Amino acid sequence: MSRDRVKPRWSRVVGAAAVVLGLLVSGCGTISRYEPLPLRAVDAEVLRTTDPRIRPGDQVRANEAVALLAHRLASPQASGAVLALSGGGANGAFGAGVLVGWSETGTRPEFDIVTGISTGALSAPFAFLGKDWDDELREAYTGGGAAGLLSPRALAGLMGPSLFSAAPLRRLVDQNVTPELLRAIAAEHAKGRRLLVVTTNLDTQESIIWDMGQLATQGDEQALVLFREVLIASASIPGVFPPVMIAGLQGDQIVEEMHADGGINMPFLAVPENMLAQSERVPGSNRASLYVLINGQTGRTPQVVRGSLPAILTRTYESMSKSTTRTFLAANAAFAARNGIAFRVASIPTDIEASALDFDKEAMTRTFEIGRARAAAGQAWVTPAAELTAEPPLAPATPEAPSEAPAR
């Protein structure tokens, strides 16, 4: 049987270097911070606004979110559809392709809630705004703007907190996150729909959920800057890109928090962690549909791993990432079953060789087209049971070349 392949190129070398050098030179490059305080006070003033952060311990905001969800599900105007976009680096092109191909079928719903982590955070605003923004979504992943993210010119050397400069990522986000985009998001937020993005606060080791619609509604230059900073932070793979310092309030004191890849603590955000174990049904949940779009693979891909340090480390993190994703899928599937929620998952098939760090334009276009074709043919979405048990046939394995570092 022929196999579609997304062939990794220079990124395999980059990935191996990122894993090894990230460990070896972790003490060389730092971001200046006062010790021993975990937060650094900022000698500046900021405009006070409603905080768009939803923190794990904020029970008031959590209760408001549940109440909003219940109200939304009870509304006859609501679709009841929730979309969760995972991390996956360059493989975000697959998810973008799925969304565009889904639009082509005419069956893609208007999602009441869209959440994004890492590369999923970058595509989430377009997914939230719907098919009218498919051209922008396609261009973001196939237009070549991402090609320089891990180029030799972007190498930051050994004296910074990451192997690569964030400048190319910032340019990509600045080009796509415009005042027009924020105005469109604010308009949908006013209808009761929600766009959520996750970052990891490394100071507190907490996953922070950002209400991006609330931020867009603020509508000023500060909102635009923070909107972009949150997306960059969520996509900042530790060791590969530097973390982002975001100002916050601790009492009346302005402090800087260190935010990084939203995928550090969770592969995707579908059902909030504090809701997963609750036995009470969410009112109206039997009207809901939950779609989890994994920008990567969940199935096991047997290979003979080389005995080199880069290959061992890369393979280890890849295995950990897949295992964590399957665990989260199982927990969310159990919650959906208890609440009568239709649950569907899409991911890159295991018979396709995918590279999360191959940002070459040609490679990302191929990945995009794989996702688009599968969605257009009605093959992208499967039940969780099928996704969690699917495994490739055990064919004779071939030695694995040094592969890419894990991407969220």
What do these coordinates show?
- It is a single chain.
- By secondary structure, the chain is α/β, with parallel strands linked by helices.
- 40% of the residues lie in helices and 13% in strands.
- The chain has 13 helices and ten strands.
- The protein has helices at residues 10-24, 59-74, 92-105, 119-129, 134-142, 167-176, 179-189, 212-218, 221-234, 273-276, 309-339, 361-376, 384-389; strands at residues 40-41, 53-54, 81-85, 113-117, 194-201, 206-211, 244-250, 253-260, 289-293, 342-346.
- Strands 1, 2, 3, 4, 5, 6, 7, 8, 9 and 10 form a ten-stranded mixed beta sheet that branches.
- Strand 3, helix 3 and strand 4 (113-117) form a beta-alpha-beta unit.
- Helix 1 crosses helix 11.
- The protein is globular and about 55 Å long.
- Mean pLDDT is 81; it is low at 1-28, 34-48 and 389-408.
- Secondary-structure class: alpha/beta
Give the strand tally. 10
Order of H and E elements? HEEHEHEHHHHEEHHEEHEHEHH
Radius of gyration: 20 Å
Largest sheet: 10 strands, mixed
Unreliable stretches covering 5 or more consecutive residues:
1-28, 34-48, 389-408
Key terms:
408 residues; globular; 13 helices; disordered C terminus; alpha/beta; disordered N terminus; 40% helix
Offer a concise description of the structure.
The protein is 40% helix and 13% strand.
